[in-house]
Specification:
Blueprint (H helix, E strand, L loop, with lengths): L1 H20 L28 H40 L1
Helix pairs in contact: 1-2
Amino acid sequence: MAILFVVLKYILAWIAYYNDLDPRLGPSTWRLSYDYPVLGKRDISDLDDKAFVRLRRKKNKIITFMYSIVLIMFMASMSLLSQLLIFFLN
């Protein structure tokens, strides 16, 4: 669990780094950005701004990896908790 926590902190640092590279990405850590038109904002495809779209896709991959680490940590903690309960209740 400690190793997964260190990996999670490392991933969160990368997300903060990507957020600082372009203000259009926003300050969100947990939210993915999508290629759909938002009311009041122009939809950006790869043809409009290649550098930004590629940066956004890198950030989305890192966020997906972060969610997988969080899921693994949750399952590991539930497994540990169940093993502790089985040990103490038997």
